[in-house]
Amino acid sequence: MRFLLLATDYDGTLATDGRVDAPTLAAMDRLRASGRKLVLVTGRHLPDLQTVFPKLELFDRVVVENGALLYRPATREEKLLCEGPHQKFVALLHDRNVPVAVGRCIVSTWQPHDVEVLEVIKDLGLDLQVIFNKGAVMVLPSGVNKGSGLKAALGDLGLSAHNVVSVGDAENDHSFLRISECAAAVANALPALKERADVVLDRPRGAGVTELVDRLIEDDLAEFDSRLQRHWISLGQRASDSSEPVLFSPCGGGILVAGPSASGKSTAVAGILEQLLGHEYQFCLLDPEGDYDDFSGALSFGTAREPPDVKAILRALESPGQSVIVNLLGVPLDDRPGFSGSLLSSIQELRLRSARPHWLVMDEAHHLLPSSWSPMKPTVSHVLESAILITVHPEHVPRAALDHVNAVVAMGKDALKTIGAFSSATEIAPPQGEDVELDTGEALVWLRTSSEPPVQVKTARSTQERRRHVRLYAEGELSEQQSFYFRGPEAKLNLRAQNLKTFVQIAEGVDDATWIYHLRRGEYSAWFRLVIKDSELADLTSAIERGSDSCPQESREGIKKAIRERYTAPA
After folding, report:
1. Options 3.90.1640.30, 3.30.479.30, 3.40.50.10420, 3.40.50.300; which CATH number does 232-458 get?
2. What is the CATH number of domain 1-78+144-230?
3. What's the burial of 514, exposed, middle or buried (CB within 10 Å: 0-12/13-18/19+)?
């Protein structure tokens, strides 16, 4: 379920002439029965609202005084969201015979008294704002409005604005409709509000709210998704027209980013993650190699030495605005699929309650979800409905995960073949098109539900600078195939260096004959270049190897120094 909460204005929206009719009340009951929540957002004072609408218990939270006061009907608790009225301001309005109603924070009057209100604010030099609502004049501290009040209510409920549809009718409703994923206007709404709304309902007032409720229950407003492109993310700019983005809906299914090593997958994904943060979508990234440990904007759990704490991860994800990165370097290779499966199960439970995290991101998905993987519970596979899967081998990712993918971002050489591998794994017809030679930072993007062939794009670029693979290569655990082995000239040894730290430790203690044997064969620089993928370190080492007439101790110290400066020196 995408939309977990309906936020509605009162007068002119939910209510007609101050009263809510029986059909509208019945619609609210149906909405609650569907598992969704209700929040009322109004400019009225709480005592006045309780008088005209005694059934406030239908709402999970009530925002009154145009965003200044939060009320919890179940416990009757009140929470002031700003400072109270400025007493000298109220006194001067009384002195000028301006009729005012004073609430816990709001000061209200009617036009044309806005002129006197503005004059008094100016004379006193106060940081107050004037908000209009169909002839009503409301005065509040700057920054306090229905939008800020709704944010407070959502924070109280642990929900994200991306899972909210809001409905209103007047000027002061702009602020809370604007922050919601879907903004609706009843048929009697002001033209300016209708113009900014994503959905304009056919009916006025309570009948319009009832119409919206019925559509919510019917298909979770799926029919309106194409109107919500202000929240969509870009998979890249078309290479043929760099001004035209290829957009993807946040509820459009999963994304597969595939291609060989060093093809730019991580850079492209970092660009997508920055967009998610910019749009305030929450994500959880499973990072087996520590590639994203320096990615700012998300909280990182786990290190090369310590496995991540699942309970701490889930506590962080309870906050709608907190994205997390799960560093799996401290989890043994063979244990990572089991760890991932357990975490996915917990994340799915969180999603059922809160529809968050909005995105799950899995690097090296073919390792975390090997082809033999199947969810322990049928519901766990649904956690991959909004997932970004990153892999070298799409054909090795389980079918249960690939079936949710609706966009393929293929990078590197033979990108069209990569898309073909995905098509074969999911048993769907591959797209028509010709393979193209991609430059650095380019990809072929295929939208599975589109009839168009794959599109060549310039991928979204990350503005962050981060170290690629540093933590994995410095302290993590490379696979047996990726590790360096000190064997010596007669292969009497089998000393495995699974990372650079271990390489340095073994180099310090290995005998001179073994050290020189690998040095003269150029195997150190070859490992740095092909596995570590650090051409600068490889070039430095190659120069030492070429001067291998030097004593073993000098070459050892030279290579160890180059490694420490690049990977293990303190920040």
Report:
1. 3.40.50.300
2. 3.40.50.1000
3. buried
